């Protein structure tokens, strides 16, 4: 069972994270980690990909409130301790899992092929929120690769001075359009960088891969397809080797595909921003399948409970993946 959760600015009480936003009071913090702990208990996933974490300690508190046992709670770049003060500038992504962890790596720099020029900003060569690449091992020994990602939002990117103050007229429609273009270019280049990593991991390997997170665009958008390249498999069967597939599209329990499967509401419009993508090893119709996607569920009722920053503004997505166990020798032989 895997899940992805954008937890909406999870930070310690009293800690400033964004300019102009008041830090959480102690009571707000308690409500937030209690709420998240309850959600984690409901999900009861073996692997949870989390986004928007400012303080790893806050995530650990929420995991503790869930009452579940997890061996690993990791948010690189948001650690708290001696000389460590959580994430700075932007929140980070992390992983919570009860599986054995072989390795965890933050992807910071783009490959040269993904570096692009952004109008007014210059070269975009690094992830704003570095994706997390984790290699896990299931109980029977099967390795699985999990990537947690949180791509650049659609919010316009305006130019700022050295102190972080906006230096453009944000009320000018032309400036607004240029700001949206900057965000799109940045998100697309991040998607391209992720695509190159996916190809590196999957090309001519049999490594099962799951990519989860807030991709800030829909499953069939250009940026998501930059990462997944699913459409190429329609005319190039060789592309199956390094394509990714929306778990929602390949799940076995097709009756569960409902129109209420949105994970975010923006200005009254439902969207699917939080996604679970899988490699062909989890696609039942592939001749290289070693498992399948049984079902996908979206937990989004709280999106209609009013705006309250103690809750997330994203629904949580959970997928049940199955892997065939290796054949065991017959007893007595």
Please supply descriptive tags for the structure shown above.
six-stranded mixed β-sheet; globular; single chain; 333 residues; 5 helices; alpha+beta
Q: Provide the helix percentage.
A: 10-25%
Helix- and strand-based class?
Answer: alpha+beta
Total helical segments: 5
Give the helices and strands as they follow along the chain: EHEHEEEEEEEEEHEHEHEEEEE
Largest sheet: 6 strands, mixed
Give the mean pLDDT.
91
Q: Cα distance, first to last residue?
A: 34 Å
Low-confidence stretches: none
Radius of gyration, taken over Cα atoms and rounded to an integer in Å: 20 Å
**Percent range for β-strand residues:** 25-35%
Describe the fold and architecture.
By secondary structure, the chain is an alpha+beta fold. It is 21% helix and 28% strand. It is built from five helices and 18 strands. The strands form five sheets. Strands 3-6-2-1-18-17 form a six-stranded mixed β-sheet. The model has no long low-confidence stretch (mean pLDDT 91).
Helices and strands in order:
Elements lengths: L1 E9 L15 H18 L3 E7 L2 H11 L5 E3 L5 E2 L2 E2 L6 E6 L2 E7 L9 E3 L3 E3 L7 E6 L5 E8 L22 H30 L6 E6 L7 H7 L15 E3 H4 L13 E3 L2 E3 L2 E6 L11 E9 L16 E8 L10
Parallel strand pairs: 1-2, 11-12
Antiparallel strand pairs: 1-18, 2-6, 3-6, 4-5, 7-10, 8-9, 10-11, 12-16, 13-16, 14-15, 17-18
Helix pairs in contact: 1-2, 3-4
In short:
This protein is of the alpha+beta class and 333 residues long.
């Amino acid at each position: 069972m895997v899940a992805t959760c954008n937890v909406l600015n999870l930070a310690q009480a009293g800690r400033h994270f964004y300019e102009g936003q008041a830090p959480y009071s102690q009571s707000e913090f308690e409500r937030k980690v209690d709420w998240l702990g309850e959600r984690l208990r409901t999900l009861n996933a073996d692997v949870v990909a989390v986004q928007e974490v400012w303080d790893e300690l806050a995530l650990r508190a929420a995991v503790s409130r869930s009452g579940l046992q997890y061996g690993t709670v990791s948010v690189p770049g948001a650690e708290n301790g001696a000389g460590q003060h959580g994430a700075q500038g932007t929140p980070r992504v992390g992983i919570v899992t009860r599986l054995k962890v072989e390795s965890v790596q933050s992807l910071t720099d783009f490959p040269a092929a993904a570096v692009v020029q952004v109008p007014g900003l210059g070269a975009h060569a690094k992830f704003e929120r570095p994706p997390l690449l984790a290699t896990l091992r299931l109980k029977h020994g099967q390795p699985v690769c999990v990537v947690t990602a949180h791509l650049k939002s659609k919010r316009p990117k305006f130019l700022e001075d050295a102190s972080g103050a906006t230096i453009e007229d944000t009320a000018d429609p032309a400036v607004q359009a240029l700001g949206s273009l900057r965000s799109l270019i940045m998100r697309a280049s991040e998607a391209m960088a992720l695509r190159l990593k996916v190809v590196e991991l999957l090309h001519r390997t049999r490594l099962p891969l799951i990519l989860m997170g807030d991709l800030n665009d829909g499953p069939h958008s250009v940026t998501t397809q930059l990462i997944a390249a699913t459409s190429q498999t329609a005319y190039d069967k060789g592309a199956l080797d390094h394509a990714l597939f929306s778990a929602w599209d390949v799940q076995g329990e097709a009756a569960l595909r409902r129109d209420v499967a949105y994970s975010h509401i923006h200005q009254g419009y439902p969207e699917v921003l939080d996604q679970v993508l899988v490699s062909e090893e989890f696609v039942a119709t592939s001749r290289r399948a070693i498992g399948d996607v049984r079902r996908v569920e979206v937990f989004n009722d709280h999106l209609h409970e009013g705006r309250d920053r103690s809750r997330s503004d994203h629904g949580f997505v959970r997928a049940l993946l199955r892997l065939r166990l290796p054949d065991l020798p017959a007893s007595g032989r």
